[in-house]
Amino acid sequence: MNSPPHAGSLFVIVAPSGAGKTSLVRALLERRRGLAVSVSFTTRAPRPGEREGSDYFFVTRQEFESRRAAGEFLEWAQVHGNSYATSRRWIDEQVGAGHDILLEIDWQGAMQVREAFPDTVGIFIAPPSIESLRERLTRRGQDSAAVIEQRVAAAKSELREAGRFEHVIINQEFAVALHQLEAIVEAARTRYEQQRARNPALFAALGVGTNR
Questions:
Q1: Which of 67, 84, 137, 206 suits a disulfide with 72, CB 3.0-4.6 Å?
Q2: CA angle 170–140–150, rounded 5-degree value
Q3: pLDDT tens across 51-107, in order?
Q4: Domain map of the chain by residue range?
Q5: Is 74 helix (H, G, I), strand (E, B) or coil?
Q6: What is the CATH T-level fold of the domain 10-197, as seen in this structure?
């Protein structure tokens, strides 16, 4: 069942590995108040510097499957052999309370989220080229050459899904990409349904209903 419009906005941000999504989101959070990132559940092992409950909730495959079977997840997907998921209850509570939430997930998960929250804002972060993506993954120094090529192949597949999203940001110059991301967030906050939910007294006094 679809949820009604909320005072808060829900943003799904999708990108191939190495496209700069994480860096853009971190910079956005530093520059814009009232934004929070949903913390996903995952079965993969923590990377250096990642913290439990801050970056991810790290769980075993058995616990993940138990939670999924219980209907706790808004969306879930397998990416590079690991499972990821988003808490349905937490998202509903946050956007219902007027908070703006960012979801960093894959494109399949984004489509699942949109089924439950039709007014979700979809943003796809793309690299300027496949070769530049390969170079970024290599400089990151976290994966072997074989894994990098797997990620590059996956990126080509993911880029074919960019047309499913309202916004596509080409992350060639970080400052430009960040400016575009900020503009999308600010524009979403002025949508009619969000303004009506945040200012009910104003629209109620005018006798304004749900129809535009």
A1: 67
A2: 75
A3: 998 888 999 999 999 999 999 999 888 877 899 899 888 888 888 888 899 998 889
A4: 10-197
A5: strand
A6: Rossmann fold (3.40.50)
